[in-house]
Amino acid sequence: METNTSQVPVTVLTGFLGAGKTTLLNRILTEQHGRRYAVIVNEFGEQGIDNDLVVDADEEVFEMNNGCICCTVRGDLIRILGGLMKRADQLDAIIVETTGLADPAPVAQTFFVDQDVADRTKLDAIVTVADAVHLSTQLGEHHEAEEQIAFADVVLLNKIDLVDKSQLTGVKDRIRKINPYTKIIETNRCAAPIEEILGLNAFSLDRVLEVEPDFLDSDHDHEHDDDVTSVSFVSDTPLDLEKFEKWFGNLLQTHGQNILRSKGILDFKNEKDRYVFQGVHMLMDASPMGPWPEKSIRNSRVVFIGRKLETMNLKEGFESCKSD
Amino acid sequence: MNNEFVKKSRFEENGKVFETGAPVTGAVSIENAIAVGFGDGSIRFFWPDNDPLEVQAHSGAILSIASSNDGVITGGQDGRFLKISTNAEVEEVYNFGTRWVDNVAAYESMVLCSSGKNVYIWSGENDKPKILEHQSTIGGIAIDQNGRRIAVSCYGGVTLWRLEKNKWKSSKFAWKGSHGKVGFSPDGKYLVTTMQENELHAWRIRDKASFAMSGYPSKVKSFTWAGDNPYLVTAGAKEAICWPFDGKEGPKGRKPLCIASGGQQNATFVESLPGEKAVFAGFRNGMVLLSELSEHPNDVLIQNPTGSEVSNISISPDRSHILVGDSKGQILWSPLWEQ
Question: What's the CATH architecture for A8-203?
Answer without folding.
Answer: 3-Layer(aba) Sandwich (3.40)
